[in-house]
Amino acid sequence: MDTVGWWSLVRFAHVAGAALWVGGQLALSLVVLPLARRLLAPEAKDSFTAAAGRRFGMLTGAVFLPVQLATGWAMAQHRGVTWASLAEPGYGRTLAAKLALFTVVMLAAAGHGIAHAGHRTDLARALAVVSLAGSLGVVLLATALPAT
Predict the structure, then answer these.
(1) Which of 22, 28, 43, 141 has the fewest CB atoms in 10 Å of its CB?
(2) Segment-wise mean pLDDT, segments of 10 residues, the chain, 148 residues
(3) Which of 94, 97, 71, 93 is CA-nearest to residue 19?
(4) What does pTM read for this prediction?
C-alpha cells in the first residue's frame, strides 16, 4: 500500500471510531434509553440500561479509545506536531482545544460510569450530558483541522 493509501486508512479508522463513539452515545440517549424507560418494567429497565452502559463502556475501553489514541498520535507525528506547536495559532491551537475537550469527555464518561454504579442517578445523568455535548464539540473541532 502506498503512503497516501496508508494515511487514508489511518484517517478513516480515526473518523470511523469517532463516529461510532458519538453515534453510540446518541443512539443510547435518544433511542434505546427512552424506549427502555417506556416499555420495560422498572427492574428490567434498570438491569437492561446498566448492561447496555457496561457493554458500551467496555467497547470504549477495549476498541474506541485505543484506536483513537493510536491513530491520533500517528497523524500528529506524521504532521510534525510538537508540544510547542500546540500553542501556535491555527492548527496547533485547534488541535490543543480538541485534545483538551477529548480529555474532559473521557473523564466525564468515566465519571458517569462510576456515578451510575454508585446509584448517583442525577450525577450520572449530568455527566452523560457533559460527555455527549463534549463529544459533539470534539467532532466540531475536528472538522476545523485539515487532513493530515
Answers:
(1) 43
(2) 87 94 94 95 92 92 95 94 95 96 96 93 95 96 84
(3) 71
(4) 0.88
Is 75:14 a contact under the CB 8 Å cutoff? yes
- Of 91, 98, 127, 95, the C-alpha closest to 110 is 127
Residue type for 24, please? G
Position 122, amino acid: D
Residues 6+ apart with CB under 8 A from 132: 22, 25, 26, 29
Helix axes 3-27, 121-143, angle to 10 degrees: 150
Say which amino acid occupies 74: A
